[in-house]
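Internal ticket #5521
Category: modeling
Description: The requester needs a full-assembly model to guide mutagenesis choices. All entity lines are attached below as received. Residue total reported by intake: 639.
Assigned to: D.W.
Attached entities:
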Amino acid sequence: MKFSLTLSLAAGLMATTALAQDKQVTIASWGGSFQEAQSKALFIPAAKATGIAVKEETYGGMSDVRLQVSTGAVTLDIVASGSGSAARAGAEGLLEPLDYNVIDVSTFYPTLKSEYCVGGDVFSTVYAWNTKTYGDAGPQSWADFWDVEKFPGKRAYRNKVAGALEPALMADGVAPEDVYKVLDSEEGIERAINKIRELKPHIDVFWTSGAQQAQLMKDGEVDMTTGWNGRFDNAAKDGAQVKYSFNQALLDYDCFAIPKGAPNKDTAMAFLAEISKAEYQDDLPKYITYGPTNKAAFDTGEITPEVAAMLPSSPANAAMQLPISLEWYIKWESVADEKYQSMLTE
Amino acid sequence: MTADLNAAGLRRDEAAERLALFGLASPALLLVLIVMVLPVGWLFYVSFVGADGGFSMENYARMVREKSYGRIFLQTFNVSLLTTGLCILIGYPLAYFISGLPTRIANLCLITVLLPFWTSLLVRTYAWLVLLQKQGLVNTWAISLGLWDEPIKMVHNLTGTLIGMVHIMLPFLILPVYGAMRAIDRDYLKAAANLGASPTRAFWTVFVPLSAPGLFAGALMVFILCLGFFVTPAVLGGGRVILVSMKIVSNIELFVNWGAASALGVVLLALTFLILWVASKFVRLEQLTGGGH
């Protein structure tokens, strides 16, 4: 009895200390080299500058947030997410709307934020090729990726619909700016899937993860694959014979969101405002080749022209790419993925 | 009179003993209730909850409407059957061979059969990937030895999936089969020979039927474990071999409710029970748990 009283007193004291120290946030991300980069460039410096204590965790994505919100036991204040799943989670009511009076996004690329999620880094879904098979002059468009006469060899493609239909339509001759117009109907989705069906005999592997993309190229298991640009840069650093192009690539971003009912919602908002500043974002490319979402980060002098040329969000590279349409994913993703899975099981 | 008293006393003792046994078993029973019965019940309930949170059959309707679900179930059963068949083809002769060895050597052999069990499933699966891929050990060695000229595609397809799954499932077949074979009195074979049966005939008419319960137990165990297999087909199938377990995962990621995935789980569970029921028509299931002797 006495012991438990002491315990609860101690707990009470600790709670007061926490209150005195006041501000803290719990952030969940994907772990690995990605979270390490976020931590070094964004979380740790921002915590130092603001005095907000940061607790980092890893999590399994929006299904974890769904579980926390639906059981009313929300422990996470900030989550890092893909833009598409964040958009769907927001539409589902799992996220707090962000206050853009607190978070300054005036120098952001306008498409790299949404009501529920503010962009943290930019990445591209690109086509990459084995330089041993094709030399430096590999495919330069999605039409080339589909051209098995000009570029004979085995392909790998994604096992989910996200980022899979847009390339197919571009290969089918649809102009990048019209892709989402065409996709905005069941027939358009069918058209894209038929195009993939056409390439399917040459697709050896349908990849599930970024690590797998790198492994497939490193081991020479396929000659060409789609994937995320940062993974191929890392694979190349590891000695893989791989190159990729930004032409017609899909410009996408990871973002930060606040789960509905987060325990430290206001602190989280202030913290997001801090890490969205150019002075933090310009450090991210030092740790991973993903670009800033804040355009001003290119003007601080931290990102050299050589590094900038490698980043998806550098103005020159961004101009070549098709930005992902979140509205399309909210509206069509589950319908399209059923059709896509059906094609995979044929 | 005394006999009646004795009988009553015996009955009382028996009841008391049963109660004590029940008391001893109750923690396990409670555990089964908490970790098995309740979650399955919850799964069943959730599978009838639609996207809007109300009662709905949409999760089951989707499975009928979309052709991919039928194909995925078919492929799951196909892969499970093939794996079981291959395990029998490889495992039965091996178990027969080991069961004929002197005990000490047989035990040593069994340890080598069990050894893979002590390694992580994931490690074993990735090891197969390293061995079988285009520039993997098998292809490079075979080409340098002149066995074939071009790399053969052995992984990222059904072949690779089956190789990995058979390797992982083999101990589940060998152990019960070995147990059954060890229990067979070899004098029966001598008696058959004495009555004029050739060794082949004695093997097929005496030995095989006697080992059948063990074989059946092992095969059923392998088959049912295969139905829910995830890691190995996901890694070695190259996204071309899609089984129910993988569809469950992708449904959890894709749909806004748990129902879509739960309904798949319920159907898989129901089909598994159906198989057990059909199996029970051919053989007494008690034999599987060793209770039927």
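Resolution: model delivered.
Comment from assignee: The beta strands of chain A are 24-29, 53-58, 78-82, 117-130, 155-158, 203-207, 224-228, 242-257, 322-323.
Ticket closed.
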